[in-house]
Amino acid sequence: MKTLRTFLEEARAARRAIGHFNISDMAAFKAIIEAARSLGVPVMIGVSEGERAFVGVHEASALVRAARDAYGVPVFLNADHTHTVEKAVEAAKAGFDEVLLDASAKSFEENVRLTRQAVEAIREINPEIIIEGEIGYIGSSSEVLASAPEGAALTPELFTTPEEAAQFIKETGVDVLAPAVGTMHGLLASMVSGEVKKRLDIKRIGEIAEATGAFLTLHGGSGTADEDFVAAVHAGITIVHVNTELRLAWKNGITSALASHPDEVAPYKILPEAVAQVRSVVEQRLRLFNS
Ligand SMILES: [Zn+2]
Question: From the CA of 219, how far away is ligand 1's center (Å)?
């Protein structure tokens, strides 16, 4: 199996992006693996600190490794939004392929300091692990929100600049950068209905890619206009995160399965509807990122 770094290099050269999807349970896990297998594309699975507190750090690692070893699926695991060096080290030791140290809510200097500490600690455990840092706070909840997250960088004057991106990478040594370029975590009700789409600053993405030469991640992809996704990937985005859309699909699947089979108690008979709905979202997104 090629490494995640190789898949990222291939994706960048081909102007494609690797889809990154979060899980909290086996239903979403199955859906993502089935989607990746059916389309024959690499995929990343993410577990944030909250998600891995539920799934288990070692359990998540074992699940992804099992799918890779048993079925040859190019699936890689990311310790999504890790806020402390201690949690980053825990994920690195558990065999994660990528760690995102997210200190984006702190000052630039503090962000650099913490991220560099994590880079040093992780490289010592396994130099193959891909390390991501993030500049520009874009909220922290992948849920349906009543209003945009307070203090988030959602307007052009607050977006990440090519200069700070280049400085951040030089000072931290990360492989991947998550800039603020128009998305936020979570969805507003108007985005759930599809009435409003998230729009991206494609020009800025191109300038950051040019200035840094780093792999770039787009976080908070749920609810983004399809054409912006395609343009962003062509401009230099290498990984795209989608979580809230999957959570909504998961909930719709469970709700409809329970409504149509009110007497059913066997989880393995209720959950397939959630798998089907999540898989459908993942396949749509993967087609777009690999087009
Ligand atoms: Zn994110």
Answer: 4
Residue type at 138? I
User: Separation of 66 CA from ligand 1 center, angstroms?
Assistant: 25
CB atoms within 10 A of CB 258: 12
Q: What is the pLDDT of residues 174-200, one digit of tens each?
A: 999 999 999 999 999 999 999 999 999
This prediction has a pTM of: 0.97
Cα separations (Å) of 269 from 2, 254, 279? 36, 10, 16
Helix-helix angle 162-172:202-212, to 10 degrees: 40
- State in Å: Cα 14 to ligand 1 middle: 24
Tokens of 157: 């004057």
d(CA 87, CA 18): 24
pLDDT of residue 76: 98
How far apart are alpha carbons 179 and 203 in whole angstroms? 13
Angstrom distance (rounded) from CA 99 to CA 127 = 12
CA atoms within 13 A on the CB side of 15: 8
How buried is residue 128: exposed, middle or buried, by Cβ count under 10 Å (0-12/13-18/19+)?
Answer: exposed
